[in-house]
């Protein structure tokens, strides 16, 4: 065979192979799409028709995540089946169904979607990603950090951070400047978590170039918000190993933070330093385990505490939880504070009423803004609750069904992911009730840091209002649009003014 004939024959074979591969892939995609079209109708769950490959993802891109959730509920009813790519997802805003998933039939819905997929430290030991018995044990141990006594001790560390923020606000007020609220409340949120959960006092606004902060920002935050790579890992957990090994994640920063954390733990173990923070509480817990002095935490909603408390966290596990607190607590708290300030600036009558309450309550507490005084502020609770209704900083929560399940004729298959669209439910005012007001979730797997976050928020707002008031300015947004990150954050910066009250 001559060279030309050989070349032509190879060309023909390649062409035939390409056509066959194309036909096979197209047939597979067509079959998959056909299945997707009938998938939810067979399970008696209503929902929109999916597109091939994209599923119903195009609508999320077009409308934005929270707005699409609301549109789905309005069009198809309280429980909907739809596709994220080719993955079937059930979304429910039904109060009764939500109560069953999060509380009544918790045993079937104890875990979240990402579980087991993240194999790399420190993600593999995050309590938020753990499953079943391992989760129960770590959750029980961690909940010892959030009792009234421990929070009271930690409130002193929080107040130190609030005082730093007050100093920054003083300069802004004296110079009559406009400020980016996320920057300053983000700074406070970061300082509080570093101080209370990582054992290091910092002022991230005053000293942004501190080495420790540089590593935190390099690994976790992208221009003041949680890094998009971390969101990708959360959305596509199977990529985590690839992302880590490809150099896309600055693992040197993670190593720096780990070494620092392990050194702090070691120094504490040797009693060279003491702080009323998370690390100290975990080490005290270890001592109690060793001396067999464990007792159930009466304030916890988890009934199995005593049995699961009979273990101590290893230094590596303590480090994992510190990192997770940073991820779970930084953005949520920063955005909530920023939205409270925005709401107060836009509603001066509410701000005045809150200032009145702060002054009245503090008059009975020797002027001290502390754990006890802020807990006496009832109107403060209402302001926070309403802000978290309008701007829930976790847009959705999710669970996985560990077995087949039925709800009012709808069939939920084993391993099905169920999403509760918090933002959408909160913006459907007729339907909101105690099972559907969910800024922190409900049931045994609700937000572990809720009491910590609320204390931090109250201490900050109360102290700020003793000296200043928030005001709008020309750059203040008339309405806030939420982005699609799932972190409930504003698409645009929230600019405000802060004025001296006296
Ligand atoms: C305003 C601030 C915050 C909001 C709105 C918020 C909201 C939430 C929500 C909605 C969940 C999911 C609950 C569920 O699935 O039922 C959650 C989980 C969680 N949050 Fe928060 N959070 C906040 C602050 C914090 C802080 C400061 C920390 C830590 C110090 C924290 C730690 C956690 C953890 C560990 C989980 C997972 C719990 C588990 O799986 O057992 N959160 N949070």
UniProtKB/TrEMBL annotation:
Record-linked Gene3D superfamilies: Cytochrome P450
Cofactor: heme
Membrane-spanning intervals of the chain: none
GO molecular function: heme binding; iron ion binding; oxidoreductase activity, acting on paired donors, with incorporation or reduction of molecular oxygen; steroid hydroxylase activity
InterPro entries per the UniProt record, alphabetical: Cyt_P450, Cyt_P450_CS, Cyt_P450_E_grp-I, Cyt_P450_sf, Cytochrome_P450_3A
Compartments where located: Endoplasmic reticulum membrane; Microsome membrane
Predominant localisation class: endoplasmic reticulum
GO CC entries: endoplasmic reticulum membrane
SUPFAM superfamilies xrefs: Cytochrome P450
Highest taxon in the source lineage: Eukaryota
Keywords: Endoplasmic reticulum, Heme, Iron, Metal-binding, Microsome, Monooxygenase, Oxidoreductase
Binding site for heme: 447
Entries under Pfam families matching the protein: p450
Recorded topology in the membrane: Peripheral membrane protein
Keyword field contains Iron: yes
Family per record: Belongs to the cytochrome P450 family.
Function: Cytochromes P450 are a group of heme-thiolate monooxygenases. They oxidize a variety of structurally unrelated compounds, including steroids, fatty acids, and xenobiotics.
Name assigned to this protein: Cytochrome p450
Organism: Brachionus calyciflorus
